[in-house]
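name: query_chain
kind: protein
chains: 1
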Amino acid sequence: ETFLAIDGGREEMPTGKRATRPPTAEELEETFAAIADGLDRIDFYKARKPEAVMRTLRTIITRAEPDLREARLLAAVGYEIGNYLDRMDRDAETP
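structure:
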């Protein structure tokens, strides 16, 4: 908000020290799939339509123009949701 108020968002955002190349379309699709699966695993969609939620998330992420490292971090969030739930299931089964 402050950034936008200062100059209307005209300046480029600084790139991080670890900035990498942009993700390919295939890599972005992997990111979206991981996020969608993670959200599905926690029953995020409930009464919402998954396609509509993912369309909005795709728009937000694409607009942000993440580099490959950032896209992989977003995918990791989705993967870790699943991994966490799997660990919880295993722990619940262990006597």
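note: The CA atoms of residues 3 and 11 lie 9 Å apart.
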